[in-house]
């Protein structure tokens, strides 16, 4: 088993929206299994199935530090300059260094916030891919079973089921790639 792809540029499915097409195919496969009259001619994804056969909060910290850090409380010129100077002495500097000291928490916390949000979003995407992958595997198994059971069905029905099977195979392969699962 490989590793989960974390580089969005290398992912096959870069967002949850990208998974919607696979979900549509899974839903179509469910409908096809339930309704044995569905064929390429009367299915919303019929042409697609046929084609598949052919292609196989930091700012407040800086403000609060500025507001309360100096010898003169408040936002007057004297309050601001004394606050900046007091903050600057923390790193051996004056008012200019104080700007960096007071801005640092906002920048750091902002960066942490973006990183946490990105991590959560990526975890949700990974979880969604895993669910869609499992559902696609289950539907492909059901389609294969239907193909065996309906071996004597008309040509259009078999073509339709084979097309759905190809779409599901491709989805499973690409989801497996993103998830780091070796798929044959």
Residue stretches low in confidence (pLDDT < 50, at least 5 long) are: 57-78
Count of extended strands: 0
Helix content: 55-70%
- Helix/strand/pairing category: mainly alpha
Strand content: under 5%
Write the element-wise H/E pattern from the N-terminal end onward.
Answer: HHHHHH
Quickly count the helices: 6
Tell me the count of domains: 2
Rg, Å, rounded: 29 Å
Intertermini distance: 12 Å
The rough form would be described as elongated
Averaged pLDDT = 72
- Major pleated sheet: none
Describe the structure in your own words.
- The protein has 184 residues and is mainly α.
- The protein folds into two domains: 8-56 and 119-179, no CATH class; 59-111, no CATH class.
- 70% of the residues lie in helices and 0% in strands.
- The protein has six helices and no strands.
- It has helices at 20-34, 46-54, 59-69, 77-89, 95-149, 155-179.
- Helix 5 packs antiparallel against helix 6 (155-179).
- The longest helix is centred in the middle third of the chain and has 55 residues, at 95-149.
- The N and C termini lie close together (12 Å).
- Residues 57-78 have low confidence and may be disordered.
Label this structure with key terms.
6 helices, 70% helix, 2 domains, 184 residues, mainly alpha
Q: Helices, strands, pairings?
A:
Blueprint: H1 20-34, H2 46-54, H3 59-69, H4 77-89, H5 95-149, H6 155-179
Summarize it.
The protein has 184 residues and is mostly helical. Helices cover 70% and strands 0% of the residues.
